Amino acid sequence: MLSLQDLASNSLINAFIKKGNEHLGVMGYTDHGPLHIAIVSRVSREILLRLGYDERRAELAGMAAYLHDLGNVVNRNGHSQSGALMAFRILHDLNMDPEEIAVITAAIGNHDEGSGHPVSEVAAALILADKSHVHRNRVRNPDIANFDIHDRVNYAVNHSIINIDEQARIISMELSIDTKVCPVMEYFEIFLSRMLLCRRAAGFLGCEFELLINEVRLL
Ligand SMILES: [Fe+2]
Ligand SMILES: [Fe+2]
Questions:
Q1: Which of 19, 94, 165, 199 is deepest in the core (most CB within 10 A)?
Q2: What is the CATH classification number for the domain harbouring 132?
Q3: How many domains does the chain have?
Q4: How confident is the model at residue 33 (pLDDT cuts 50, 70, 90)?
């Protein structure tokens, strides 16, 4: 059976991740490279394991996460759908089980807040893991005076974790934001749609979603 490790050692996949991230860098976007992929992959897997899903479901979430931003190599716009089609082709060539390919393709195609929906537990885990990865070290613009809102929000976040309370069925995202860099309002300006998607994803997993910023509960 195809594993996350197989994907992580695949030169085509890794070239697309690297190049896609370079192209986003040219446009001034935050980092979507190997560190982002590794974190989202690990967290996606852990979310399903913590909630009692079986090992293979969790592995599929980790694999979907490993491939989720491949589409950035084509274009940032529509990267979830282009990435889904690329993943389909790659996984098919690697002889993955067709139903598993379908699960991963759908999760990738649904990870973006513009058009995404938690269509499966794998998709839900990927949404939560991806949207929770907000951090100062993702900002690549070296010029603080010319930060855009995405840079400011990411730069302001010095700590972000996702907590799973499997007993109480609560998924909470905890962020600490330096409000001198970015007021909480700015966070909401770009993150509200992501947080609403996270709430739907948590709901799909039978959990409530909570958002805590600087120890204040906001959702
Ligand atoms: Fe993405
Ligand atoms: Fe991502």
A1: 199
A2: 1.10.3210
A3: 1
A4: very high
The pLDDT value recorded for residue 172 is 96
- Helix, strand, coil shares of the chain as percentages rounded to 5? 60, 10, 30
Beta-carbon contacts of residue 2 (< 8 Å; ≥ 6 apart): 63, 91, 94, 95, 96, 97, 100
What domain range includes position 91? Answer: 4-217
**Structure tokens of 35?**
């560190």
83 alpha carbon – ligand 1 mean position (Å): 9
Question: Tens digit of pLDDT for each residue in 80-113?
Answer: 999 999 999 999 999 999 999 999 999 999 999 8
Instruction: Give pLDDT, residue 132.
Output: 92
C-alpha of residue 72 to centroid of ligand 1, in Å: 8
Helix locations, 68-97, DSSP H: 79-93
